[in-house]
Design goal:
The chain has 526 residues and is an alpha+beta fold. 14% of the residues lie in helices and 31% in strands. The protein has 10 helices and 36 strands. A 4-stranded antiparallel β-sheet has the order 1-2-3-4, with no helix packed on it. Strands 5-6-7-8 form a 4-stranded antiparallel β-sheet, with no helix packed on it. A hairpin with a 5-residue loop joins strand 22 and strand 23. Helix 1 packs antiparallel against helix 2. The radius of gyration is 27 Å and the shape is globular.
Length: 526
């Protein structure tokens, strides 16, 4: 019998007792409250630590010449990584990136093999550009009206070069040529652009944008001037755009919406048809049954085959499900999910996050069959046009997150490191040999490590993990922790209401009280 059933039975009994023996009601209520508290005390609570062992991929971009250079870039837990072997080995990119805010989007020049140009944006520090494939970076924010940039989008190679567009998190759209360092506003700041897409056909100069009000914007001159072509009322924000490589002839592009799935136009945006089935059907394949706070028709990405004009092949992903494929322009759909995985943690956050995000295709898809999918449960790769998927590992558990050196005495010192998933280690012989320091840890994913200024007398070491500040009084041989969480009087009523009645904690606790604290750096007074 579940705890909920026990509780209901007790409540029913209490009602009968009230009718038969009113004088016992006070004692019965006390017993009921004690039992509820006891159940809460013994019920195992699933603690949500960092997403382990896989990694939440926030943004993904693939080289326009991937079949030759095997290069792709990802943003994973605010690490900015590059792979040059198709996603099997990764290098973190840091030289010149002095951003204080999280990364948000990546865009690659259509002439990447020749110019090595890459852009990366952040949610507060603006935009950075690299001319050597990510080896070094410099800020390029002249003319940018905001430091909070959410979307970057790169054009095909036009006759006068290529164009990059940047959409502000809070509104506005900015345009720059790759040969320039200055940005120019092209859509006012009152408009919040949520999706962008260039036609791969450089002759057409067509760019499509969607905003958070469901408006479809179209530019016919490479993003210089814009006008609203269509309004999708009551469908939520526009979430994805895919434009045909033969737009000059077929006038086709696809629009993904927040609430009602996928739409297609074949007249340049004058009219739209909903594409039934696939991404437009309600689906909660990866959802935790109790938390369906986002629509099952929420489209996350659209990817048209490089030769869409001939093959009519289009792929799409949704918030809860991936990947859908159509070989007839969206009329019928096939679900391709073999090898893809989900994690219910995506539904348990204070603000649920999508299980699947961006989908990218190789420019030589027809022959190499390569697709990449970014999601909450990590990065996936297919070499069979989506029929089968393999999970990649961008962040190894041995990745070093923190480094600390004890004070020196008699020319002796201790080096300590913390890792992404392997816990803590120390070396007492200048790094030649290492010993694990994981006794007493609740999780082996740690951030910083620091030594007491009086280490040689008090043997004290500090570290941190999610919601825990770690302390060791014996040089790291065993750890104890202090939980970092809200402990006010509202905590326990919120727990009871959520446990038995399903009332969200947000009705009793503020966002700050609900948030999970993870210290990333430790500094100790001398």
């Amino acid at each position: 019998m579940s705890y909920q059933e026990i509780l209901c039975a007790l409540l029913a009994y209490r009602t009968v007792a009230w009718r038969r023996e009113p004088y016992l009601i006070s004692r019965k209520l006390k017993q009921l409250v004690c039992l509820i508290i006891g159940l809460l005390a013994v019920t195992p609570v699933a603690s949500t630590y960092a997403h382990s062992p896989h990694h939440v991929i926030d943004s993904l971009e693939i080289s326009p010449s991937f079949s030759h250079d095997q290069t792709l870039f990802i943003i994973v837990q605010n690490y900015f990584l590059r792979s040059t072997d198709g996603g099997y080995e990764w290098k973190e990119l840091v030289n010149g990136l002095d951003n204080k805010y999280i990364f948000s989007s990546v865009a690659i020049s259509p002439f990447y093999r020749r110019d090595g140009l890459v852009y990366v944006s952040s949610d507060g520090s603006g935009i950075y550009r690299s001319r050597d494939g990510g080896g070094s970076w410099q800020a390029v924010n002249e003319g940018l009206g905001t430091g909070r940039v959410g979307i970057l989008c790169m054009s095909p190679g036009y006759e006068d070069g290529a164009v990059v567009l940047a959409a502000g998190v809070e509104g506005g759209l900015y345009r720059a040529l790759l040969t320039e360092v200055a940005w120019r506003p092209v859509i006012e700041e009152a408009v919040k652009v949520t999706a962008l897409g260039f036609s791969p056909d450089p002759v057409s100069g067509i760019v499509v944008a969607g905003d958070d009000q469901g408006n479809i914007w179209v530019s016919e001159d490479g993003g210089k001037t814009w006008r609203i072509r269509y309004r999708m009322e009551e469908l939520g924000r526009i979430t994805a755009v895919g434009v045909s490589d033969q737009f000059s002839h077929d006038r086709t592009f696809f629009i993904g919406t927040e609430r009602e799935g996928l739409f297609r136009t074949v007249d340049g945006g004058e009219t739209f048809d909903v594409l039934k089935g696939g991404p437009s059907e309600e689906s909660f394949h990866c959802a935790e049954k109790r938390r369906r706070s986002a629509s099952g028709k929420h489209v996350m990405s659209i990817a048209l085959a490089p030769n869409y004009g001939k093959s009519r092949t289009v792929y799409a992903t949704t918030w809860y499900d991936a990947v859908y494929k159509s070989d007839d322009g969206g009329e019928t759909w096939e679900r391709l999910g073999q090898g893809l995985s989900c994690d219910r943690q995506a539904d348990t956050y204070n603000v649920p996050v999508p299980h699947f995000r961006e989908l990218k295709l190789s420019e030589n898809l027809e022959s190499d069959g390569t697709l990449f999918l970014a999601g909450f449960d990590g990065l996936f790769k297919s070499v069979s046009r989506g029929k089968g998927w393999r999970q990649l590992e961008p962040l190894p558990v041995r990745l070093i997150r923190g480094l600390g050196i004890s004070p020196s005495t008699n020319d002796n010192y201790v080096i300590g490191i913390t890792t992404y998933g392997g816990g803590a280690y120390k070396s007492s012989d200048r790094g030649r040999t290492w010993a694990a320091l994981n006794l007493g840890l609740k999780t082996t994913r740690l951030s910083d490590i620091a030594y007491s200024p009086a280490y040689w007398t008090d043997n004290t070491v500090f570290s941190a993990s999610l919601q825990r500040f770690l302390i060791s009084k014996n040089s790291g041989s065993r750890w104890r922790y202090v939980k970092l969480e809200y402990k006010g009087w509202r905590k326990y009523p919120a727990m009871i209401l959520k446990k038995f009645l399903g009332v969200p904690k947000r009705y009793l606790l503020s966002k700050r009280q609900r948030s999970a604290v993870w210290p990333m750096a430790i500094a100790i007074s001398p």
